Amino acid sequence: MTTGDPAALAAAARSFRGATQLQPDLFEAREELGLVLYMMGDLDGAVDELRALLRWHPDAVRARLILATALTAKQDWAAARPELEEVLRRQPDSVQALYGLARVRYARGDQNGAIEAYRQVLSRDPEHVDARYNLALLLKLTHRDAEATPEFLAAARAGHVRAQYFVGTSYARGLGVEPDLARAIAWWSRAAEQGNPEAGAALGELRQTALGKTRRAAIDRRTAEQAFRDYRAALWTDFPELTRNGDDDTVGAALVRQGRGAEAVPVAIAEARAFSEPAQALLEDLYQLGVPGQVPANDARILDYFKTAADEGQPRARRFLHEISAASEAVPPSPVRP
Amino acid sequence: MKKTVALAAVLGLTATVVAAAVAASAKSAVTAFEWSVYDRRLSARPPKSPTPIVVVRDPASEVRFGAGAWDRAVLADVISALSRSGAAVIGIDAPLGQPSAPGRGGPSSDALLSQAIAFAENVVLPIALEPVDPDAPAARDGGTGSTAPQHRSWPPLSPESPGLPQARAYSGSLPGFAQSANGVGHMLGSADPDGVVRRVPLFVRVGERRVPAFGLAMAQAFTSVDLTRIPVDRQGRILAPPAGRALQESFKTVPFSEISSAIEGRRREALQNLVADRIVLLGIESAQIRDRVAVQINLLNRILTWGWLRETPFAWTLVGSLLLSALAAWRWLAAVWWKAALTTAALAVVYVATVAASASSLGVLLPLAIPLAAIGLASVGAIACNQLLSAHRIRDLEGEVAEIREGLVRQESAVEALEEDLEAARAAAARSSGGEDALRAQLAAARAQEAQTRARLEELELRAKALAAGDVGEAVPSDAEQARLQRECERLGIVTRDPAMLALFRDLEKAAHASLPILIAGEPGTGKELFARAAHRLSPSAEGPFVAVNMGAIPAELFESEMFGHVRGSFTGAVADRKGYFEQANRGTIFLDEVGELRAEHQSKLLRVLQDKSFYRVGATRPTTVDVRVVAASNRDLERGSAEGWFREDLYFRLKGLVLRLPPLRERRPDVRLLAERFVRDAAAELGRQPLPISEGALAALERNDWPGNARELQNCLRQALALAEGGAISVADLRLADREASREDSGRDETVLATLRRHAFDMQATARALGWDRSTVTQRLKGLGFRALVDSGGDREAAALALAGEPALGRTVELKLREYFEHLIRVVEGFASPEEAIAACRRRFKNLPERHFRSLELLVRQHFERRSSAARV
After folding, report:
1. pTM for the model
2. What's the pLDDT at B79?
3. How many CB pairs lie under 8 A apart between chains A and B?
4. Which residues of chain B neighbour A141 with C-beta distances below 8 Å?
5. B114 touching A, CB under 8 A?
6. B489 touching A (Cβ < 8 Å)
7. Residue B155 Cα to chain centre, angstroms
8. Please, what's the b/e burial string for B205-221 (b: 16 or more CB within 10 A of its CB; e: otherwise)?
9. Are A213 and B107 within 8 A, CB to CB?
10. Chain A touched by B108 (CB under 8 Å)
11. pLDDT digits (tens, 9 = 90+) for A169-214
12. Residues B730, B680: contact at Cβ < 8 Å?
């Protein structure tokens, strides 16, 4: 039962309920009915059916696990906990039950118990990214940053977006790692590209510092500027196959030169956000002219970058927006381009 | 004076103690009452610090982030933004102790918030604590020291702070957020008896640390605070009432949605302008700032503005209440009631104003309930004392009067006996020429003593009468008031200086302004119509007509036509429409004189008009409605009439809105002189000649006369005297008073004499004046009546006295007189050998005794001799 279609779920619920009415001790039908009701959001109904089932079949582990999940969804932690513990007594290796138990423990304020449960999950399933991320969060919340950061890093590398933000923060603040603002920018950028608002805000703040628009000290501004330079330099290491033509060359331009225009746009934007003037010039050209066969003109991503940069107070971005606005007013839009 | 002050002090002290006791037993009501006044004043001018800014949940933010608890990532975002924008301190109104539910961000949002708090470095959080009873075992053994949470900002216990209130945390360790915070403060407060939290312990003891109040923690995160200069009470608490909505309104309050939209819109400068260098309190719990938070905000505000509130120590409250209540009591004891009432009201008003001014301008909260209650109680006590003292004084005076009356009776008897002796001495002048002189001297001395006693008695009786009327100031108007009333009376044609009349006039003045019916009782000629006219002229309808109707003079068959009018043709003589008296008096006053003379059927018709204010003209088909003020008068006792059935009771009650009983002229003799002069002037004007002065002798004679026809008789007498006078002044002879008395008093029957005696409480002089006789004649009559009563009662003097007195109150006086008369009689007959000789002597001695009474005397003498001879035989 994996479908999320409400109509299909309702139909399934009706048919399972009919089956249980015809044959009340039909084990599978009642278990499926409980699951369907849970998926439909009828938590109380699911809990009732599964409890009824467990009265007849106390060893029905799957049904008990579904019951514990429904109770957790109801935030009835006190009831969910013994069910999960019962599942684990019968199936000590149940990763799902352990993960649920960790959540329940955290919700009840037992942070150390939750950490222990997450560790047990990871010992059985080292690839469980959510468990690792949550373990890292709890370690951070208990002020154990030295332990938390490696776990965040592992989850971030596995693609967990919020973990990437926290890794960036760890590098920025030196929490459990050596401070490295350039790496922080790299991780924040990766998270921000995937829509993480905290990472975007952190980058924005750092850019404001570099632009001298915050109340921070001058040394902070210089540090931020240097970090963005280092970040730009580090970008080349992500593309070892590219050849750099002098100091003003950018990764984006190199990718365009290699005919990898589609890859070039986000990289150029990242470089431009890191205050690369050549990257900004490249983006202006790409927006206005495009690259035939690779990048269309008037790319919305590029325009979005310029608008954000203008909002942040970057004069070049403002100037460019003004130019394209004036040009569109001077030349009335025509269906036929010359 | 000293006695009054001492009594006022005692009353003040008692009232203060009682007020304090009552306040102690009703603390909740007292606190609520006092703070209802304080809050109003404090709200008017709350101290305003520009530093704090309060961010509150608003509907827009609830639409966006939900109505319940918010995802803490939102809060983390806002804290980071505020910190970046330069907020000096960020306070959060929730302890954030419990972890986030998975549906609201779970540990992820908690971690974001924890990180934001740590990075901001200027966040102050509250911690949830519960008070610990210092006597509980856990508190005595060091409290929660081993498991108590600790924060780096909490100072250790100092020797100066052993008596701090104790508290414990719900958990042995600080929540993760609090560990990252710059400061952590408690939100505990002390509820006053009315349940409102107005006091905050500046610090509470948790384990071995002192936890500051949340407001103080925010202030300390902002600036350095000199804790030694903050005024705290003995429990280490500070007074920081929330002062209602005004306090919240006095801070800059920003909706949460404004902050969040500024952050999202990257309006960095706007946010900076809003929060830079300020203390920002994030009210994330509810749209309304709750009381416990409001108290903390007020504490913060008062620390920043250094504007403290101070309460008055209880001892000062008592002293102040004592002074105020004693002052009020003194005024009630020393002044007339209206002056005292005014002073007390002014005292209370001034005090309340002082309390209000003190609270708003000085921050000193003066007590309100106990002083005001003490003023009230002391006033009531003083009024009660006045009543008790008056009653006591009346009793004393009555006792004194009774004593003097007895003495007077004895002196009168002595005078009478001496007069009789004098007569006897004159008869035997040859034998006892020297004895007559001695008797004359004794008689003169006795008369002088009697006159003195009588004067004293009159004075005491006046005082007793005034006291019995309630209040000296009330019964006898002050000089200024009397003068005003006299002038007003004179303006309205009423000539009097009699305090009783003036008091009646004062009542009339008051009643005239209302539409209350007035019933004037009094003998003919006492001025009933003058009072009725005065009531009209003093009433709001003075511009309207005044119609006086003598009810006794209207023929019965014309009653309806005269009173209510008729329409043309309704009866033979009705040749035209005619308005009745009631209609003539519309929008004015109708004076129904001699209303007691109305026949029964006319009484019911009059009653209907008075009830409905409308009537039917004779022959009319539609009612006529009038707006008439009714003043009625009668020389008959209408109350008795309603009891006896000749006057309708409902009509009596309808008429007697205010009853004025005008005293006869003989009860206000000083007015005779004024009236006489006035009447002479008027008569002279009528006769077209110059008014003549009245000789002193004539004036004295006029004053002595009883004037049963009152002012009207006096007026006729003077008209006649002026017409007949031949000299340059009106003399006694011109008055022809003897003729009047002779014509008036030919009824010398014993019943008349006895009734007059009873009316004048057996005062011989007054009775003699009333009857127009000389006193010895009255004495002889009473003596004769007394002897007859003694014979009738078989010698039982008490029964005889009661039979004569008619009422027990006069029994004692009469009994004394009877005893004197009888003893005198026995003294007279004592020296004779036989009853015949004695009776013969008595005939000479009591020659003015009426013959019909002499038989009783004779019988008494014979009985005396019989008793004497039987005693001699024994």
Report:
1. 0.59
2. 93
3. 60
4. 107, 110-111, 114, 176
5. yes
6. no
7. 61
8. bbbebbbbbbbbbbbbb
9. no
10. yes
11. 999 999 999 999 999 999 999 999 899 989 998 998 899 899 888 7
12. yes
